[in-house]
Design a protein that fits this description.
By secondary structure, this protein is of the alpha/beta class. It is built from eight helices and nine strands. 35% of the residues lie in helices and 20% in strands. α2 runs parallel beside α3, α5 runs parallel beside α6 and α6 runs parallel beside α8. The radius of gyration is 16 Å and the shape is globular.
Amino acid sequence: MTVKIAPSILSADIMNLERDVKAAEQAGADLFHIDIMDGHFVPNMSFSPSVVEGMCRVTDKPLDVHMMIENPDAYVKPMVDAGADTILVHAESTQHIYRSIDLIKSYGVKAGVVVNPGTPLETVKELFPVIDQILVMTVNPGFGGQKFIPNMIKKIQRLDQLRQTAADDDFEIEVDGGINADTIAKCSKAGADIFVAGSYLFNGQDGLKDRIDNLKKLAKKEE
């Protein structure tokens, strides 16, 4: 699958979000990753459907909405109405994850499941035939700028193996957390397709285009 870079707006300048989004789009971003946090499921708070709606006004790129919240079903329709293209729900956030995925897909948008570092892939294996994406957290969720957890490489490899051995499993593998010039090649070689990058892109001294180009180049080397 094609390598895709998804800048995380959690690391952008919130006071100049439109500027940073447009700059990232011009620099070659393939989609944008929007973290929705409620302060309960994770110990942080960020964004709302209004931010997703605002993003739609400044970019035509797909919006990848990552819901780190309790009771995610209650927020599916507001996110769809706001303009989300993909909605990702944590397996750990609900006892009825299959119902959540089915609800998302009923609105005609892409659906994905997220697994925390400590969550076994076996807990979501039954979802593989019906999801569009699976997001592997390579840090503990809730805050940007965290250090990549090396053991997650084996998890990505295992996930890619499972995908290849099932004819009806056609989802993309996304990784989020600590993605930079030192980690992206390993994740790509393990089988990841979509790479969420925040601090590396928005907090660097060199330009966004140079950093996005560099990530794509490093990932492609290992395809």
